Amino acid sequence: MPALWCRRALTRAVHRGWRWAQRAGSVTAEHPGRLRFRRLGHGTRLAFPQGTVFGEPWIEVGDHCIIGERVTLTAGMMPGLDLGAEPILTLGDGVVLGRGSHVIADTRVSIGSDTYCGPYVYITSTNHSYDDPRQPVGKQWPRTEPVEIGPGCWLGTGAVVLPGARLGRNVVVAAGAVVRGEVPDHCVVAGAPARVVRSWDPVDGWRPPLRTPAPVPLPDGITPEQLLALAELEKSQESDGPEAPGSGG
Q1: What per-residue confidence (pLDDT) applies to 1?
Q2: What does the record list as coiled-coil region(s) (predicted)?
Q3: Does 2.160.10.10 match the CATH number of domain 22-226?
Q4: Which stretches within the chain are classed as H helix?
């Protein structure tokens, strides 16, 4: 019994210590730690533990961004380079990068506002070249091309965005897709290499049509508090269940 109590106490202590480390180790504009970004917006947080981060003087991160655990953000091929006067990596307001994602910006990479990335998304402006068959691929000078991801996009888990890719506004990238080249606004891409599997037309709507029902718009003037109260009411009614016939007084 004492051993079981000690184990439980140790487990609680470890969990409390880890929660403290997560709070203390997170990076914000008010508490940047060792990192000195060109800009780190209000309300933005880099979760602890961070991944590899270097070239911060050439990285701009907008307001209210969420950078998950072990996310890599790099500007330049290696630390200590002078990359000039302009930013190399730019994240707009409200960008979300899921756990374990990588954004590698050896040349210009921009991610538009309110773009959400699931876990382990890989975005890079650099690719290895293999022109010389006599040399190891890793020893050949890589190719770089700018990457631009428009606002309001959604990148699923494990998606890869290759050098030279340009994604329009509100693009959905399916999990595991490998994106290169240009992707128009308001479409869904999937596969490796990624291709358009659904697109939106101002006249015809989504083609092919969506299989899910259209969302019901909220009534004008409703407040978040009213929505929460309605949800609580529905939950209480479900838990009470229907009253059995004849059970009333």
Answers
A1: 63
A2: none
A3: yes
A4: 2-25, 224-240
